[in-house]
Amino acid sequence: MTDTAATPTTLPRETQRLDWARHATHDADLGLARASADAGFRSYWRTTGTEPSRIVMDSPPDKEDVKPWLRIRALLEGNGVRVPHLLAEDTEHGFLLLEDLGPDTYLHVLHADNADALFDDAITQLLRIQATPIPEGMPVYDEALLLRELRLFDEWFLGKHLAIVPDVHDEQTLERVHRVLIDAALAQPQVFVHRDFMPRNLMPAADGPAVLDFQDAVKGPIAYDPLCLFKDAFVSWPQARIDAWLDRYHARAVDAGLPVPPLERFRRDVDLIGVHRHLKVIGIFARLHHRDNKQHYLEDAPRFFAYLDHVLPKYPELAPLAELIERRVKPTLVEYAHWTDGTGDE
Fold it and tell me: Regarding the domain with residue range 2-99, which homologous superfamily does it belong to in the CATH classification?
């Protein structure tokens, strides 16, 4: 790995990116083709005209500092986690040169017949992540962060997307539910948490899967990442299979010496941290839609309401949230769909 020469910041970003990639690969004829983008400001570009191909991560410094990604990558690699190999870096201008792991993530290749084997490989990587020593100063999934995430649902989905103005009763309901979910999260054993450990962030690899998108890692509840893996944002599985995978994870975590609680308590932890994540992701999808003009994410919001429909009836302390969703959210969703599917007059 080498540091590369400075890139003039007065040039258009696409020119900076191409010039840097050519310098980093020592190939003046190299081209770049879009490989993928994520929900943030980073983008990924595949080199063309040379073999083997490489990936350029473009992370504009004024929008998304690449240094947290590099710090977490080094921590994970040091604990045996399969992460993308780093070939060159320019932290000042936000460019990285990485190995090319191909076009497909787990999301593309998972199906009913191979899911058991692929998820078992994913659990292997997850156990290594959770066993990674937590460095001093690492961000913590504390009460402030948990509450800030929960309020994404209130602000962006209820308020901005559905134009629901909560009355006093609704506000009290949300506050009580927030308290239940926050207390449950803080009571869990705390480990190294990826925060988005889902199929779209796993890449098939012979010694993998390789783990992506780990820059927002924190110290937090042990059930968070297993929940993310099996109750994904973009694909749903039968509940019986999810339960079996969670039990398999739990057994392997016990064998690995991780601080998982007894199985029944772990299942409850998964459910409650799942409600937290489902509400957060619905809010994030609404924010991506309205703030960032990334409109396709909201198409998956119904998946999260289905997750909530499964869990909320199991817990009396969450009954107020279930009642709020039935009384105010679902009728508004139906009306919203009417106005946005071409059947309304708007």
Answer: Phosphorylase Kinase; domain 1 (3.30.200.20)
